Amino acid sequence: MFYTLYPIPYTLYPKRCTLIMPAKKIKAVLFDLGETLLSFGKVRVTRLFRQGAKLSYEYLKSQSQPVGNFHWYCWQNLIRVRIQSWLSNVAGRDFDMLALLKKVGVKRGIELEPQQWQHLAWLWYEPLSKTARVEPNITRTLAKLRESGLNLGIVSNTSVNRCCLDKHLEQMGILDFFAVRIYSCELDFRKPDPRIFEIAAQRVGEAFQNILFVGDHIRNDVAAAAKIGMQAALLVNAANVRKKVPEGTWRIGQLAELPSLIEKINAGPL
Q1: Which of the four, 15, 38, 193, 229, has the lowest number of CB atoms within 10 Å?
Q2: Which residues have C-beta within 8 Å of that of residue 99, sequence separation ≥ 6?
């Protein structure tokens, strides 16, 4: 850990003494995923679900799997996902969509190889993935951050399995920037639980005070990160622009502002 010297008058002693305080320069940046790195905007959930159901249904039929009538297949899966989502909200933890597909599929007599199950999960997610957009010149922004010596990572609340999200990030051309990718469906908790931030800090190898967390959600992202001791930047959008943020939170309109913001933070008084 690096330290910076602060001349601080200490009233118990007749002379001024110098205390050593830990530096708070940014050495790593953690990003939220949805509506931060990937922007989905407003989507028609039921329509996208039906499209995913159709793709997955046709694939299972092509593999001679027992799927029955499409409408029954679609509605049965929709009900199961809604029930599982409700249970997740009650428990404060996200379910894994791939694990759910396997559990339901095996009960129906569906038999697939591991790669086929992953492909099935992707077919469910693919319609939603096609609605996603990334910020113009996002690769240039991330390259600047990495060239500055910063470690980059992702911390996301999601029920989408890693195989799908990593494939999506790869398609967007940004997967290789993030050696650390933490998806809540692999854990027993999710943001704003401090444990997920602790894991993220351990994996990027930096102290909380040296990490900047960037996200669009005030409670789950910036407030939770600030509470544990990280620095935080809110990506402003229509949903959060008028909301109060924790003291000390930075506001940015786009991710392209991050390189100059971090330069400013690291160059300024601590």
Answers
A1: 15
A2: 161
pLDDT (tens place) for every residue of the chain, 270 residues total = 333 333 333 333 333 333 333 458 999 999 999 999 999 988 899 999 999 999 999 999 999 999 999 999 999 999 999 999 999 999 999 999 999 999 999 999 999 999 999 999 999 999 999 999 999 999 999 999 999 999 999 999 999 999 999 999 999 999 999 999 999 999 999 999 999 999 999 999 999 999 999 999 999 999 999 999 999 999 999 999 999 999 999 999 999 999 999 999 998 764
Identify any residues that bridge with 213 across adjacent strands, giving them in sequence order. Answer: 30, 232
Task: Indicate whether this model's pTM tops 0.70.
Answer: yes
Q: Could you write out the DSSP letters of every residue in 159-208? A: SS-HHHHHHHHHHTT-GGG-SEEEEGGGSS--TT-HHHHHHHHHHHT--G
- Tokens representing residue 231 in the block: 């620095």
Q: Which amino acid is at 81?
A: V
Asked if 252 and 258 count as a contact pair (C-beta separation under 8 A), the reply is yes
Cα–Cα distance for residue pair 82/77, rounded to 1 Å = 9
